[in-house]
Amino acid sequence: MSGYRYEMKFVLNESQLSHLFNLAKQNGFKRHFPKRTVNSLYFEDFKFSSVKDNISGISKRKKLRLRWYDKDNTSPSLEIKKRLGRIGNKIKIKTSFINGDEVEKMNSNEIKKVLNRNLNNKNQFLIDPNLHPLLLVRYDREYFISSQGLRLTIDKNICFSSVSKFNSIKTKKKFNYNKKIVEIKFPIEQKQTLIKILKKTDLIPTRHSKYLVGIAKLGLCSYI
Protein backbone atom coordinates (compact mmCIF):
# COMPACT_ATOMS: atom_id res chain seq x y z
CA MET A 1 0.00 0.00 0.00
CA SER A 2 2.90 2.32 -0.79
CA GLY A 3 1.94 6.01 -0.76
CA TYR A 4 -1.43 5.44 0.89
CA ARG A 5 -2.50 7.27 4.03
CA TYR A 6 -5.42 6.68 6.36
CA GLU A 7 -7.97 9.51 6.27
CA MET A 8 -10.68 10.60 8.74
CA LYS A 9 -13.12 13.47 8.17
CA PHE A 10 -15.30 15.49 10.53
CA VAL A 11 -18.09 17.93 9.63
CA LEU A 12 -18.20 20.49 12.44
CA ASN A 13 -19.92 23.63 13.60
CA GLU A 14 -17.94 26.52 15.13
CA SER A 15 -18.21 25.20 18.71
CA GLN A 16 -17.08 21.68 17.79
CA LEU A 17 -14.21 23.06 15.73
CA SER A 18 -13.01 25.19 18.65
CA HIS A 19 -13.06 22.13 20.94
CA LEU A 20 -11.12 19.97 18.47
CA PHE A 21 -8.63 22.76 17.77
CA ASN A 22 -7.87 23.16 21.49
CA LEU A 23 -7.47 19.40 21.85
CA ALA A 24 -5.11 19.32 18.90
CA LYS A 25 -2.91 22.02 20.47
CA GLN A 26 -2.85 20.08 23.75
CA ASN A 27 -1.58 17.05 21.83
CA GLY A 28 1.29 18.87 20.20
CA PHE A 29 -0.17 19.85 16.84
CA LYS A 30 1.59 22.87 15.33
CA ARG A 31 0.98 24.95 12.23
CA HIS A 32 2.65 23.21 9.28
CA PHE A 33 2.08 25.60 6.34
CA PRO A 34 0.59 29.09 6.00
CA LYS A 35 -3.15 29.24 5.35
CA ARG A 36 -4.04 29.30 1.66
CA THR A 37 -7.03 29.14 -0.67
CA VAL A 38 -7.47 25.81 -2.44
CA ASN A 39 -9.20 25.48 -5.81
CA SER A 40 -10.26 22.06 -7.10
CA LEU A 41 -11.83 21.63 -10.53
CA TYR A 42 -13.50 18.21 -10.68
CA PHE A 43 -14.10 16.14 -13.80
CA GLU A 44 -17.10 13.86 -14.33
CA ASP A 45 -18.48 11.68 -17.11
CA PHE A 46 -21.96 11.90 -18.61
CA LYS A 47 -23.16 8.98 -16.49
CA PHE A 48 -22.04 10.71 -13.27
CA SER A 49 -19.99 7.62 -12.42
CA SER A 50 -17.94 9.31 -9.66
CA VAL A 51 -21.12 10.56 -7.99
CA LYS A 52 -22.77 7.13 -8.15
CA ASP A 53 -19.67 5.31 -6.87
CA ASN A 54 -19.36 7.67 -3.91
CA ILE A 55 -23.04 7.60 -2.93
CA SER A 56 -23.10 3.80 -3.27
CA GLY A 57 -20.11 3.57 -0.95
CA ILE A 58 -17.95 1.66 -3.40
CA SER A 59 -14.65 1.16 -1.58
CA LYS A 60 -12.28 1.34 -4.54
CA ARG A 61 -12.80 4.52 -6.56
CA LYS A 62 -10.96 7.49 -8.05
CA LYS A 63 -11.58 11.10 -9.08
CA LEU A 64 -9.83 13.42 -11.51
CA ARG A 65 -9.32 17.06 -10.60
CA LEU A 66 -7.27 20.10 -11.54
CA ARG A 67 -5.92 21.87 -8.45
CA TRP A 68 -4.26 25.22 -7.82
CA TYR A 69 -3.68 27.61 -4.93
CA ASP A 70 -4.32 31.34 -4.78
CA LYS A 71 -1.18 33.49 -4.35
CA ASP A 72 0.88 30.57 -5.67
CA ASN A 73 2.96 31.12 -8.81
CA THR A 74 3.13 27.43 -9.70
CA SER A 75 0.89 26.13 -12.48
CA PRO A 76 -2.21 24.05 -11.63
CA SER A 77 -1.63 20.31 -11.32
CA LEU A 78 -3.82 17.52 -12.62
CA GLU A 79 -4.46 15.03 -9.82
CA ILE A 80 -5.83 11.52 -9.83
CA LYS A 81 -7.13 10.88 -6.33
CA LYS A 82 -7.54 7.21 -5.44
CA ARG A 83 -9.40 5.80 -2.47
CA LEU A 84 -9.68 2.35 -0.96
CA GLY A 85 -12.11 2.63 1.92
CA ARG A 86 -10.63 5.19 4.32
CA ILE A 87 -7.15 5.12 2.88
CA GLY A 88 -6.09 7.10 -0.15
CA ASN A 89 -3.32 8.57 -2.25
CA LYS A 90 -2.96 10.76 -5.32
CA ILE A 91 -0.89 11.10 -8.48
CA LYS A 92 0.09 14.62 -9.57
CA ILE A 93 0.83 15.70 -13.15
CA LYS A 94 2.11 19.14 -14.14
CA THR A 95 0.16 21.16 -16.71
CA SER A 96 0.97 24.07 -19.04
CA PHE A 97 -1.49 26.50 -17.41
CA ILE A 98 0.26 29.62 -16.13
CA ASN A 99 -1.98 29.96 -13.06
CA GLY A 100 -5.51 29.42 -11.81
CA ASP A 101 -6.74 32.75 -13.14
CA GLU A 102 -6.07 31.50 -16.67
CA VAL A 103 -8.19 28.41 -15.98
CA GLU A 104 -11.09 30.44 -14.61
CA LYS A 105 -11.27 32.54 -17.78
CA MET A 106 -12.02 29.36 -19.79
CA ASN A 107 -15.05 27.13 -20.31
CA SER A 108 -14.93 23.36 -19.95
CA ASN A 109 -14.16 22.68 -23.62
CA GLU A 110 -11.22 25.08 -23.62
CA ILE A 111 -9.81 23.61 -20.41
CA LYS A 112 -10.01 20.07 -21.73
CA LYS A 113 -8.32 20.99 -25.04
CA VAL A 114 -5.37 22.56 -23.20
CA LEU A 115 -4.96 19.54 -20.94
CA ASN A 116 -5.17 16.99 -23.73
CA ARG A 117 -2.62 18.90 -25.82
CA ASN A 118 -0.32 19.33 -22.83
CA LEU A 119 -0.45 15.71 -21.70
CA ASN A 120 -0.13 14.30 -25.22
CA ASN A 121 3.03 16.37 -25.78
CA LYS A 122 4.54 14.79 -22.67
CA ASN A 123 3.65 11.27 -23.83
CA GLN A 124 1.29 10.89 -20.90
CA PHE A 125 -2.23 9.54 -20.98
CA LEU A 126 -4.97 11.59 -22.59
CA ILE A 127 -7.96 12.55 -20.49
CA ASP A 128 -10.79 10.08 -20.94
CA PRO A 129 -13.00 11.59 -23.68
CA ASN A 130 -16.04 10.92 -21.51
CA LEU A 131 -14.72 13.14 -18.71
CA HIS A 132 -15.36 16.88 -18.63
CA PRO A 133 -14.86 19.65 -16.03
CA LEU A 134 -18.07 20.00 -14.03
CA LEU A 135 -17.55 21.62 -10.63
CA LEU A 136 -15.15 24.11 -9.04
CA VAL A 137 -14.73 23.88 -5.25
CA ARG A 138 -12.92 26.72 -3.44
CA TYR A 139 -12.09 26.97 0.27
CA ASP A 140 -9.58 28.33 2.78
CA ARG A 141 -7.37 25.64 4.33
CA GLU A 142 -5.21 25.65 7.46
CA TYR A 143 -2.50 23.01 7.96
CA PHE A 144 -1.25 21.43 11.21
CA ILE A 145 1.02 18.49 12.05
CA SER A 146 1.84 16.55 15.23
CA SER A 147 5.22 15.20 16.35
CA GLN A 148 3.94 11.69 15.47
CA GLY A 149 3.30 12.70 11.86
CA LEU A 150 -0.48 13.14 12.06
CA ARG A 151 -1.59 15.83 9.58
CA LEU A 152 -4.69 17.89 10.30
CA THR A 153 -6.38 20.35 7.94
CA ILE A 154 -9.28 22.72 8.57
CA ASP A 155 -11.38 23.84 5.59
CA LYS A 156 -13.59 26.95 5.90
CA ASN A 157 -15.43 29.42 3.64
CA ILE A 158 -16.31 26.68 1.18
CA CYS A 159 -18.07 27.64 -2.05
CA PHE A 160 -19.01 25.93 -5.30
CA SER A 161 -19.57 26.97 -8.89
CA SER A 162 -20.52 25.06 -12.00
CA VAL A 163 -18.49 24.74 -15.19
CA SER A 164 -20.16 24.88 -18.60
CA LYS A 165 -19.22 24.33 -22.23
CA PHE A 166 -19.97 27.90 -23.28
CA ASN A 167 -19.24 30.29 -20.39
CA SER A 168 -16.09 30.92 -18.40
CA ILE A 169 -15.93 29.76 -14.79
CA LYS A 170 -15.63 33.39 -13.61
CA THR A 171 -19.14 34.15 -14.86
CA LYS A 172 -20.85 31.32 -12.95
CA LYS A 173 -22.85 31.81 -9.76
CA LYS A 174 -21.17 30.87 -6.46
CA PHE A 175 -22.93 28.71 -3.83
CA ASN A 176 -21.71 28.93 -0.23
CA TYR A 177 -21.47 26.09 2.30
CA ASN A 178 -21.21 27.08 5.98
CA LYS A 179 -19.79 23.85 7.47
CA LYS A 180 -16.19 23.41 8.59
CA ILE A 181 -14.45 20.26 7.39
CA VAL A 182 -11.60 18.77 9.38
CA GLU A 183 -9.52 16.02 7.81
CA ILE A 184 -6.82 14.03 9.56
CA LYS A 185 -4.34 12.06 7.47
CA PHE A 186 -1.76 9.76 8.93
CA PRO A 187 0.32 6.64 8.29
CA ILE A 188 -1.73 3.51 8.90
CA GLU A 189 0.52 2.52 11.82
CA GLN A 190 -0.51 5.72 13.68
CA LYS A 191 -4.21 4.81 13.80
CA GLN A 192 -4.20 3.87 17.49
CA THR A 193 -2.49 7.17 18.40
CA LEU A 194 -5.34 9.10 16.83
CA ILE A 195 -8.01 6.90 18.41
CA LYS A 196 -6.61 7.71 21.86
CA ILE A 197 -6.87 11.44 21.12
CA LEU A 198 -10.42 11.17 19.79
CA LYS A 199 -11.59 9.26 22.89
CA LYS A 200 -11.37 12.61 24.69
CA THR A 201 -14.13 14.00 22.47
CA ASP A 202 -17.64 13.06 21.40
CA LEU A 203 -16.71 13.64 17.75
CA ILE A 204 -17.37 10.82 15.31
CA PRO A 205 -15.64 10.51 11.92
CA THR A 206 -18.06 10.63 9.01
CA ARG A 207 -18.09 10.07 5.28
CA HIS A 208 -18.13 13.44 3.57
CA SER A 209 -17.39 14.71 0.08
CA LYS A 210 -17.17 18.39 -0.83
CA TYR A 211 -17.56 17.20 -4.41
CA LEU A 212 -20.94 15.57 -3.69
CA VAL A 213 -22.11 18.55 -1.63
CA GLY A 214 -21.25 20.83 -4.55
CA ILE A 215 -23.02 18.61 -7.08
CA ALA A 216 -26.09 18.64 -4.80
CA LYS A 217 -25.90 22.45 -4.52
CA LEU A 218 -26.11 22.58 -8.30
CA GLY A 219 -29.22 20.37 -8.16
CA LEU A 220 -27.58 17.44 -9.97
CA CYS A 221 -27.89 14.86 -7.17
CA SER A 222 -29.38 14.38 -3.71
CA TYR A 223 -26.84 14.32 -0.88
CA ILE A 224 -27.28 14.97 2.84
Fill in the keyword field for this structure:
9 strands, eight-stranded antiparallel β-barrel, 224 residues, mRNA Triphosphatase Cet1, Chain A, 38% strand, alpha+beta, 6 helices
Please write out the topology.
Elements: E1 5-12, H1 14-26, E2 30-44, H2 49-56, E3 60-69, E4 77-84, E5 87-94, H3 100-104, H4 108-121, E6 132-145, E7 151-162, E8 174-177, E9 180-186, H5 191-198, H6 210-217
Antiparallel strand pairs: 1-5, 1-9, 2-3, 2-6, 3-4, 4-5, 6-7, 7-8, 7-9
Report what the structure shows:
The chain has 224 residues and is an alpha+beta fold. The protein has one domain (5-217): Alpha-Beta Barrel (mRNA Triphosphatase Cet1, Chain A). 25% of the residues lie in helices and 38% in strands. The chain is built from six helices and nine strands; from the N terminus they run βαβαβββααββββαα. The protein has helices spanning 14-26, 49-56, 100-104, 108-121, 191-198, 210-217; strands at 5-12, 30-44, 60-69, 77-84, 87-94, 132-145, 151-162, 174-177, 180-186. Strands 1-5-4-3-2-6-7-9 form an eight-stranded antiparallel β-barrel, surrounded by four helices. Strand 6 and strand 7 (151-162) form a beta hairpin.
SSE order: EHEHEEEHHEEEEHH
Beta strand count: 9
Assembly type of the shown chains?
A: single chain
Quickly count the helices: 6
Head-to-tail CA distance between termini: 31 Å
Stated plainly, the CATH topology is called mRNA Triphosphatase Cet1, Chain A
Low confidence ranges: none
What is shown here, in short?
The protein is of the alpha+beta class.
